[in-house]
Specification:
Radius of gyration of chain B: 22 Å
CATH superfamily of the largest domain in chain A: Response regulator
Largest sheet of chain B: 2 strands, antiparallel
Number of helices of chain B: 15
Structural class of chain A: alpha/beta
Helix content of chain A: 25-40%
Number of strands of chain B: 8
Low-confidence stretches of chain B: none
Strand content of chain A: 15-25%
Helix content of chain B: 55-70%
Oligomer: heterodimer
Order of helices and strands of chain B: HHHHHHEEEEEEEHHHEHHHHHH
Structural class of chain B: mainly alpha
Number of helices of chain A: 13
Mean pLDDT of chain A: 89
Order of helices and strands of chain A: HEHEHEHEEHEHEHEHEEEHEHHHEEEEEH
Distance between the termini of chain B: 33 Å
Shape of chain A: globular
Shape of chain B: globular
Largest interface: A-B, 57 and 48 residues
Strand order of the largest sheet of chain B: 1-2
Radius of gyration of chain A: 25 Å
């Protein structure tokens, strides 16, 4: 059927075309950057990669507002937010290293693929020098890997799985948020105090990486108290009705239900548990209790009345009374008419921390920034004294144990702080088995090009 | 030329030219201008254009020719990606074995799924394929990623770690490469205010797409293609003539599954990560949208549709209110705010809305998709009421 005809003229013509094509790359130039996206003009571009559509869109939106606020403060606009309270005084409100801060935004859709595409377009097209934000650990790990390859700094937003700074840690990646291990360590003593040391716990766990690491962490710390784990049940991520998982809880002889769920999952499973009247039951002669290890304002609002009295942990809460927290809440509240969420606070703090690290390093070079951030101790951004640990780029700070407010005074007052667990109690060695053990390494910082 | 008739040769050369010159065509605006926002000529998006083009071309072989609407094609894409990343983990970052395996695995997978699903037609076929795809998604997301048997690494996605064996790597590059040509290396050509980026990965994918397009073209024009079209027109009648149409269907299904596998392999080759959400039903729906948007049953349509959707996803989603304010900053502030308030819901996080509206408009007014629109404009310009030299480009909605 096919008929290929060769003529001398055709051959010469196509030969010339191929030759020209091959010669093409030799006349191309490579840009003279000494690292990826070195800012050349009077501005520097940051990339804010957050979920704007999908299940965590509200959270992403809050992160975006906080990041924009941070850019304003860096450029010397607005009330300066945490710049005056920040313990490092390198930032002067004139941008970063004298360059005005610009930003680009993208939509992660809470999908690793979309998040990487969005981050790549920021790096390749818009010349972003760092990527900040995001909700979900899967996305954080995926984008962190991308930034490591591309040679830019990545600062994760809301990511709670141990893996982000555990087995998947990267030299160019930093996490301000706390993690599942810290939740477990912070919650355990409070649980012991409130519920005693001989409880029988039943876990419902969202069936994916984050759920598993959290279950593992909570199980380890509660068992260390003397609790017994009756059963751990994995629930499919797409479930919206958890009735069939709740019913066996009582029969199993458990008296505490641990919900390793997040977002809509948690709202639904908690609502089901309340509907089944679990909290009104008494098992083994004790009142039945529910624990939600990772809380967020968004979930608290979604679960409404049902969270009353339910214990959990948080990275930050706007009710914290330190100077940095007050300054941030005031600044955010005046602008948006409501207090910030804890993921917003993390994203805000990270923009400031990045800018400050550039100032102190005197360069935007990712390797310089990494050096400036490693082991950096600071205060005044809302969480109290905090350290970026050198070995795994995880922030260590106090962790909040919170409870669904019994008598909320306003619609923002959904959670009350039960205890602020000091940082010493939630610290673990960098080669902890839950964090990849000795095999986990940061690798070398990558400046790209 | 190439065993194609004159019109097809022209179409083919047109596709080749457009693909190879994409870095110029997609970058019409100077890099510092406000309109640079609309430039799509950066490596990642160009790669996506051609990769999803391959995916849609393959889908079109099944849907456009036989009229069987598979709602689970993303499963093959995902399987292809996982196969490719496993090759990176086990052998080396060379993309050749990875892509070969991704095509083979996707082909086998589609053989199994096709064998079962093709027992039914119409909506039942669609639902069956959807069920299989969702099943694969659930398997990849949680079942096959438990700590004791971790095949897919679940939510995080399968990645290559420094501790992976990579038996054939030796001193080879640390990035995906084609015999040493690193996929992510990019040369930039600066002409005046323009900066054009030429990326190895893009040209590798482009070569695959041109080959894929050529093969699809030959299939469309072959007796086999004619048989597939007969199935679409009236399968019952075909069966009454004593022909067993199922082997043809299965062949078309497997071919289009292999196309999806190739696309998945290339996705992994340009960015060595395979996530489960690649298999989700939304991803399957996306390729259906691409094909219908561009024009189901046409040769060029799927490629155009793929580019259209990926453009919206990556360009419109990045226009935020700050960008809008800079565009309209020359106007008085009240008008500026008003315009921003009107436009903002349709860009940034509202990109789905714009895409949905465009899709509605196209399906209602251009039932043959973008290709239909292009044809109408062409006829208007030339003043011809061009009779269809190309029966396949007949702009009728797919059934």
């Amino acid at each position: 059927m096919s008929k290929f005809e060769f003529t001398r003229r055709g051959l010469i013509k196509s030969g010339a075309a191929v030759g020209a094509g091959l010669a093409m790359p030799t006349i191309l130039t490579r840009p003279a950057f000494s690292y990826t996206n070195e800012p050349k003009g009077g501005t520097v571009t940051l990339g804010f990669n957050v979920p704007q559509t999908g299940p965590y869109a509200d959270e992403g939106n809050d992160e975006l507002l906080a990041q924009k606020l941070a850019v304003e403060h860096l450029n010397g606009e607005g009330d300066g937010g945490c710049l005056p309270t920040f313990s490092s005084k390198a930032l002067k409100g004139n941008g970063i290293l004298g360059k005005k801060v610009q930003f680009v935004t993208g939509d992660t859709q809470t999908k690793s693929d979309a998040a990487r595409a969005s981050a790549k377009s920021m790096i390749e097209k818009d010349g972003a020098i760092m990527i900040n934000g995001g909700s979900s650990s899967g996305v954080a790990v995926a984008v962190q890997g991308l930034c490591q390859e591309a040679g830019v700094i990545f600062m994760a937003g809301l990511t709670h799985a141990n893996d982000t700074t555990g087995k998947d840690r990267k030299a160019n990646g930093f996490r301000h948020f706390f993690n599942a291990y810290m939740s477990g360590a912070a919650l355990a003593p409070v649980l012991a105090k409130e519920m005693g040391k001989d409880r029988r716990a039943y876990h419902l766990t969202a069936d994916y990486n984050w759920g598993w690491t959290q279950e593992e962490s909570i199980k380890a710390s509660t068992e260390a108290l003397g609790w017994e784990t009756v059963n751990t049940v994995k629930t499919p991520l797409a479930s919206t009705d958890f009735s069939s998982y709740i019913a066996p809880v009582i029969n199993a002889g458990a008296d505490v239900l641990v919900l390793n769920h997040y977002g809509g999952n948690m709202v639904n499973s908690l609502t089901n548990a309340i509907q089944f009247g679990l909290l009104d039951k008494a098992v083994n002669g004790k009142d039945f209790k529910i624990v939600v290890p990772l809380y967020s304002e968004l979930m608290a609002a979604g679960a409404g009345e049902n969270i009353k009295g339910v214990l959990g942990s948080m990275n930050y809460n706007w009710q914290l009374e330190n100077a940095g927290s007050k300054a941030f809440v005031k600044s955010f509240g005046e602008k948006h008419g409501r207090p910030p969420s804890n993921s917003a606070q993390t994203c805000y703090a990270q923009v400031l921390l990045y800018a400050d690290a550039c100032e102190r390093a005197g360069t935007f070079n990712p390797c310089g920034v990494v050096e400036a951030l490693e082991g950096f101790e600071f205060d005044g951004l809302g969480n109290g004294p905090t350290t970026y640990r050198k070995e795994d780029h995880q922030c260590f700070k106090d962790v909040l144990v919170v409870r669904g407010a019994q008598n909320p005074t306003s619609k923002f007052d959904t959670l009350e702080i039960v205890e602020i667990t000091p940082v010493a109690n939630v610290t673990y060695p960098p080669n902890h088995p839950m964090f990849g053990g000795d095999a986990a390494t940061l690798g070398k910082c990558n400046a790209g090009v | 030329m190439f065993g194609l008739d004159k019109v097809d040769t022209r179409t083919f050369l047109f596709v080749v030219a457009i693909t190879l010159l994409a870095p110029f065509i997609l970058n019409p605006f100077p890099s510092e201008s406000a309109l640079a926002q609309f430039n799509a000529g950066y490596p990642d998006l160009m790669q996506r254009f051609v990769i999803f083009g391959i995916f849609a071309i393959g889908f079109n072989i099944l849907f456009g020719l036989t009229g069987y609407l598979s709602f689970g094609h993303a499963a093959f894409l995902g399987v292809g990606s996982y196969a490719a990343v496993w090759m990176f983990k086990l052998l080396s970052f060379n993309i050749v074995p990875a892509i070969a395996l991704s095509i083979i695995v996707a082909g086998l997978f589609s053989l199994v799924i096709g064998y079962i699903c093709l027992r039914r037609s119409g909506i039942y076929f669609s639902i069956l394929t959807l069920a299989f795809a969702q099943m694969s998604f659930a398997m990849a997301y949680s079942v096959l990623s438990n700590p004791s048997f971790n095949l897919t690494n679940g939510e995080t996605g399968l990645q290559v770690y420094a501790s992976d064996p990579q038996y054939l790597k030796g001193n080879g590059p640390d990035n995906t490469h084609l015999f040493g040509l690193e996929m992510n290396s990019t040369a930039t050509l600066e002409i005046g205010a323009w900066a054009f980026q030429f990326n190895i990965g893009f040209y590798v994918c482009a070569a695959f797409m041109i080959a894929a397009f050529y093969i699809a073209m030959r299939i469309f024009r072959s007796p086999f293609g004619l048989m597939l079209r007969a199935i679409k027109t009236n399968q019952t009648r075909l069966n009454y003539t004593g022909l067993n149409s199922r082997p043809y269907m299965l062949a078309a299904f497997v071919i289009s599954g292999m196309y999806a596998g190739l696309a998945g392999g290339l996705l992994a080759a340009t960015d060595p990560l395979a996530g489960a959400e690649r298999m989700q039903w939304t991803a399957s729906g996306e390729v259906v949208l691409m094909t219908i948007l561009g024009g189901a049953g046409t040769l060029l349509g799927p490629v155009l549709g793929a580019a259209f959707i990926k453009y919206f996803e990556n360009i419109f989603s990045k226009i935020n209110d700050t960008v809008l304010h800079t565009w309209f900053s020359f106007m008085p502030e009240s008008i500026e705010n008003f315009l921003v308030a009107i436009i903002y819901p349709f860009v940034g996080k509202g990109w789905h809305l714009t895409l949905g509206l465009m899709f509605m408009l196209i399906v209602i007014f251009l039932p043959g998709g973008l290709v239909d629109g292009g044809m109408r404009i062409w006829n208007r310009i030339t003043g011809k009421n061009r009779t269809q030299a190309d029966p396949v480009a007949d702009p009728k909605p797919a059934e």
